[in-house]
Amino acid sequence: MSGNKDTKQFTRSFSHLLKRAVQYSVHLYMDEVGKTGLTHRQFTVLSAVDSNDGKSQTELVKITGIDRSTLADLVARLMAQGYLQRRRTKEDARANAIRLTPVGKKILKSTQNGAEEIDKQLLSLFNASDRRIVMECLGTLASEMDMIDEGPSAEEPVKIKLKKRIVTA
Fold it and tell me: Which residues contact 126 (CB under 8 A, 6 or more apart)?
């Protein structure tokens, strides 16, 4: 019976359910787009580079939310596959400008429709009025992470602030 109790405990944990939702999203991605050999994170990096041509790896860390070392590894792998190119920027010889290669543009284009379809599939699990709420709630969590990534300003003391928000359907 403890197995049932353990299962119930996890079904009440928001963070656990959020993790499972991400796992489900990645599962759908692998079924739909994974055949190309492109992982979900690689797709994210290629999409970010496509929308932000010539940005540095540091800027891509901020855009994607992928940590610096993981992004560097992803960029190196995508370069080895011929999808990305990296060049030193003129403004800062320490920074690398990242661009899609023609092969990178081709693989991204071949996977974009599948990735968009996954978003549609995920959102279709919610009724129309709940979709907006789900997107707003996830946006709130993402904004909180953006603030953490930006770090405290010199004038602000370091604090963790939790906001109460009531959502009605």
Answer: 134
